[in-house]
Amino acid sequence: MQEVMITILLAAAVIFAAYKTVMKFRKGGGCCGEHEQAEKSVDVRGRKKKDYPCQVRLRIYGMTCAGCARRVENALNSTDGIWARVDLNSNTATVRMRDRADESRLPVIAAKAGYRAEIVRDK
Q1: For site-directed labelling of 74, which of 56, 92, 102, 123 has its Cα 20 to 30 A away?
Q2: Second-level CATH architecture of 50-120
Q3: In this structure, what DSSP letter does residue 1 have?
Q4: Is the pTM of this model over 0.90?
């Protein structure tokens, strides 16, 4: 009787694992809501470097995919006076600003998007 119960439990576990695997391949899986439609990039109004004279690099912690990078980039680019490009490979963002005073807001903006960030000071 015990052998039958163990066999049934093992069969149920195999069926459940197979079902989850098939669903993951069909819909995607992982972080950032891969089951949802991808977030569109926020367009920055002016992209002339002369309009953004101040530049800062941010180290961003917790990004694991392109969706994470887009989320951080959109949060920064949605802020007036900021133009940012996020690099997932280096976990950094190059942020151009109209005013250096905006620098202290950058980690807060990243935190609202769900990521920890710190300003990288060049030596």
Answers
A1: 123
A2: 2-Layer Sandwich (3.30)
A3: -
A4: no
Domain ranges for the chain? 1-29, 50-120
- The string of pLDDT tens digits covering residues 72-100 is 999 999 988 899 999 999 999 999 998 88
Residue whose token pair is 């280096």: 90
Angle (nearest 5°) at CA 119 between 44 and 64: 70
Q: How far apart, in Å, are the Cα atoms of 7 and each of 2, 13, 25, 99?
A: 9, 10, 27, 68
Residue 110: its pLDDT value, please? 94
Residue 116 DSSP SS3: strand
Q: What one-character-per-residue DSSP string does 99-114 give?
A: -GGGGGGHHHHHHHTT
